[in-house]
Amino acid sequence: MLISDVLTEIFEYLDDRDEIIGSQKTFRSLYSCLLVNRRWCESAVSILWRSPFHRCHKRGGKILVQTLLNCLNVEEREDLYDDGICLPFNKSDCPIFDYPNFLKNLDYYQMILYVRSWCTSVLNVNSDQYVVATLRSLLRLFAGRSASLSTLTIRSAGLDDDKFSLLASPEIHSLIKPVKHLTISCYFPRDTLLIALAKNCRNLHSIRINNLSSYDEMSIQNAKKLCTLIESQRGLKQIIFSRCKAFINIILPSLSKQKRTLKHIGFHGINFEDCCKWDALKSCTKLEKLDIRDCYNMDFNMISPLFKSHHRNLKDVGIHSCEPFEVNDELEAWAYMINCRRRRRNSSSSSSS
C-alpha cells in the first residue's frame, strides 16, 4: 500500500472522530496535517473540502466563499460581471488546489447563508439578486469541475424558493445526479426542484424527511411530488421520517414501490392522525430494521398489517415512547418477539460454528 493511501486512512479516521465529537474545536487535527508537508497536505485537503459548508462557522464562511470564487476562470468571472458583480482576475489569488472538485457533501441552506454573508461584507449589498447570481456561479463551478455529490441537504422555510430553484437548473444536473443520500427539511421548496430530483436522482440509497407541517394546497401538491421522488428510485435502502406533523398519510403508500430494496424504515416524532393502514410496510419483505419512537395519534387498525407480515429478514425493531400507550405496548410486545427470534438465530449460528 502506498504511503498516500495510508495517510488517507489515518485522516479518514480523524475526520470520523471529529464529526462524532461535534465541538467547536473539531477538525483542528486535520487542519494541522495541512502544514506538515506537501504529501500530507494533498492527502488531507480532499477530506477537508468534501464537506466545506459543514465545517466552518459564520465568520469563516465568507472566506470559504471567496476561496471558491477565486477558482473561477476569466470566462466564468465574466458571467458574474454580467450579473453586476465585479471579480477581478489575479493569478496570485488562484488556489493551489482545485477545491470545487473535492465537493461530496452539500448543505445547500448553509451555502446560501455563507453566500449572503459574503455579499453583505464584500459587495456591501444585501440584495437577493447578487446572492442568486453568486450561488448560480458556484453551482456551475461545482458542475463544471466534475464534483460528484454523495449527500445533499435541503433545508428551507419557504423564503428562498428562488435560490432552491437553481438546483433544478439543467446546467447543474450532472452535479446532483450522483447523489446517494438526500435530506429534505422544513417547508417544501418549489415543486420544480422535487420534479428535477425525481428525474435526475434515481439512485438514492437513503432519504430523510424532516419537519413537514404546512397544510396549504401547495404543500399537499409538493407532498405528492415527494411520493414521485420515492417511487422513482431504483434501489432505495433507507427512509427516515422525523418530526412530521403532516403528509404521512399521503407519502406512506409510496414505500410499496421500494418493497424489494428497503431495509431500514424509521418514524421519529410523527403525527399519525388519520393515517392509512400500514400495508406498505407489510409489503417491504427485505426490511431488516424498523425504528418507531415518540410518535403519536396511532391506532390498532393502522398498525395491524405489521402483525400479519412475514418479515423474515427483520432483525432489529425499536419501539419507544409512542402514544397512545396501549398501542405502544402492543408494538413493544411484537418487537420483543422479533428481537428474540433474532437472538435465537444468532445463538444457533454460534453453536453450529
UniProtKB/TrEMBL annotation:
A Pfam family the protein falls into: F-box-like
SUPFAM superfamilies the UniProt entry points to: RNI-like
Superkingdom, taxonomy of origin: Eukaryota
Domain (F-box): residue spans on this chain: 5-54
Name of the featured protein: F-box domain-containing protein
Organism: Glomus cerebriforme
